[in-house]
Amino acid sequence: MEEQRDIQRQHRQEASKYTYLIIALSVSAIAFSVQKTIDEPLLLRQIPLGLAVLSWAGSIFSGLKYIHKGQDILYTNNAYFEELKNNYLETGVNPIMNKVVTNTFREILEEKSLKASKYFNWQFGLFISGIVFFVIW
Q: Which helix (DSSP H) or strand (DSSP E) does residue 45 occupy?
């Protein structure tokens, strides 16, 4: 059981590092694009660059939402353990109540995890599309 927790903790840490890295790269790419075009007037040929900047901004947004959802999942997980502890203190070992609590929190956590994974995937996809638009530019 402890090994599983260590693996989950390590996975969470690596995903967070990856998310922060993509956010930093996206911010840097936007800054580089602005620096390269600061003295140029707006032209039609800059549309791909604008799409790249929008993609990187979307990547930043998705990364921040992923981090927020991750914190939300941890909070919900903590609330689950608190609820189990409170139920045990109030009613003793009550398998029916524990099953209801477990099922309810499992549904909530699955929904939140699905949303978090979507933001995680969107972050990478938007980052890569920003690179593609930048190369086209």
A: none
Are 25 and 130 in contact by the 8 Å Cβ rule? The answer is no
Distance CA 126, CA 130 (A): 6
Rg from Cα positions in the chain: 21
- Band of pLDDT at residue 40, cut at 50, 70 and 90: confident
Q: Record the pTM.
A: 0.79
Q: Which residue, among 127, 128, 129, 119, has the nearest Cα to 63 in the 3D structure?
A: 119
Count of beta carbons in the 10 Å neighbourhood of residue 55:
23
Contact 123, 63 (CB under 8 A): yes
